[in-house]
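Methods — Computational structure assignment.
A single polypeptide chain was analysed. Its primary sequence is given first, followed by the predicted tertiary structure written as structure tokens.
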Amino acid sequence: MKSPFLRLWGMPILLGILSGVGLVAALVADGWGDTLSWLTLGLLVVLMAWYWFRPVRR
């Protein structure tokens, strides 16, 4: 069973780490870093769109 802290903050922490890795890779690295930044930041956009357009459960 997950701790209450991880149930509440696990996904926001993971998304923050992904965005940080993507932004740093875009600024610092070249070649593979560009690919990493596209993947991590693109994943965040896909997740936001998926949650935005999903049907609301009532």
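Note: The chain has a mean pLDDT of 92.
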